Amino acid sequence: MANSPSSPSPVIRDVIAARVSRRELLKGGLASGALIAGGSFVGSLFAGETHAAAALSTLGFPELKRVYDKTHAAAEGYETAIVARWGDPLAAGLPEFDGNKVAAEEQEKRFGYNCDYIAFMPLPKGSVNSDHGLLCVNNEYISPNVMFPGMTEDDAGKTMTREQVDLGLAAMGHSIVEVMLKDGKWATVEDSPLNRRITANTEMVVSGPVAGHALMQTSADTTGAKVLGTSYNCSGGVTPWGTVLTCEEGVSDLFGGDPKKAPTADILDRYGFDGSDIYGRGRFHDRFNIDKEPNEPNRFDWVVEIDPYDPQSKPVKRTALGRMSHEASTVVRNKDGRIVVYMGDDDYFEYMYRFVSAKAYDAANPASGKDLLDDGVLSVARFDADGTMSWLPLVHGRGKLTAENGFADQAEVLLKTRLAADALGATPMDRPEDIETNPVTGRVYAVMTKNKKRDESKVNPANTRPENLWGHIVELIPPGGRGPDADHAADKYAWDLFVLCGNPKDAKVGATFHPDTSDNGWFVCPDNITFDPAGRLWVATDGANDFDLPDGVYGVDTEGAARGLPKLLFTCPHGAEATGPCFTPDGTTLFLSVQHPSEDAESLDKAQSLWPDFKDGQPPRPSVVAIRRKDGQPVGA
């Protein structure tokens, strides 16, 4: 079977090679960017020809030379500005930020830590304004080793004080801040009534098939319909009705206790719970101790919907979207009006998912989006070697998803999403991260960041390299046509491998970037991606530091002669990850999160960079950066 982890890679190489043609490569067709695992780019077909792709690239900026030092850098002709930093005030009257004296209560009113996904929500609501809006930013986790003096990463869970633990609860989650562009510079509106923090202490509603289920009930919430807080908020999405989706990406190491003794030990094991409690929450809060609250873990790892325009609204955990280490929740309004959500489960050998709503969204009536994500079909992806992929419905009563196999009802199918996907034979992927749709072509791009654990016996058609340290990007082609004609609700798609990442000069890596890729243009470990209004792909990386390279942002054409040719626009400071790229509607500003600067240091006193403030005695501060052309034209044009 093509989706079997034991499929031999020589067969895969033969099948994929057979699908490649020079004509398709040139026109950017289905087999464009196809590869031979462990071999060279099929662009060797161009041997002896003059490559004009660099000149034909639609990316007009002069490529940045890689810079890996204490600060960030951008390509010539571009300027950058810090828009929001950890600790910046989101309410009037707060004292100047001191990273050594932040109290948990005060942190609830300040911009959160380790920024990740960014959504720019125009003001007024419903407009396409590009100079006034809300930045909705995930605050994924904390880095105690560079947040608290004298602490290392290994001892945080055992030595963090109650005050430090509570600060961590308040620093994670999500930040909403009003921003305005004045004279070419972005600034926050410090006293905006729309500014808001959503943290691990914020009360939320549970909706959908799992709401009220016995496995969601705790001593603090016997209804199973209310949850306190969200954590590990990674990527996300934006709905057509003006809400933001934030993804809980695995909370297994936030809980103490012994998961092996819990009534749901099999579920906890499949979701990676080991009682590690890396932030010490379980020492002070019973809800994070599995021994005392065995159902509390079930109330996390969901997609959370937030209305940023209504600061009084409660966030809602949408259980119909499944339970996993959600990386993305990219929303598409299909041509029949139904809402489609693409999601990745970011862990080794996990799967890609898609949700299709039962009802259509009426754009003339935005209120029709309310609770639209509570009813629909969640499916998991299977990739076959013939270039087709199938969406396998995770519906109770179908196939192996029955009570006899451990799924009592649809709620249990969703609570045990990973186990249900296992049962259907989905294709294990190399850590599925962001999944985004090209607004011009309608094609879907899914990022596999890396998988060092895959050996030769476990390669499959969509994950062709053992010990994949470099990552790759998969291209999905829905039927129906380009752009708005693409049918994102179809049961079957075509697919291809867009690029395999890594140094193309190292034959052992087998990278498949365009032959004209420069020494500065190739990248490793793609993580978050986005598209500009022109349909160009922008890739933010996480993991280049392991290769003694900076993480950064690269633009890539997906069509034409320059398809698969990346160009480097921006590099992060030492130890930091580039994540959450997001454009304003007119494409003139690219917002980017610079996450965990200097996190690779053993402790704060050994940090190689105190970015972005560079103040002695103050810790580095994760921040949102705005990247703009100096002449005000669209980024990348």
From TrEMBL:
Q: Which domain of life is it from?
A: Bacteria
- List where the protein spans the membrane: none
Q: Where is the composition biased (Basic and acidic residues)?
A: 628-637
Looking at the record, which segments are called Disordered? 596-637
Q: What is this protein identified as?
A: PhoX family phosphatase
**Organism, as annotated:** Mesorhizobium dulcispinae
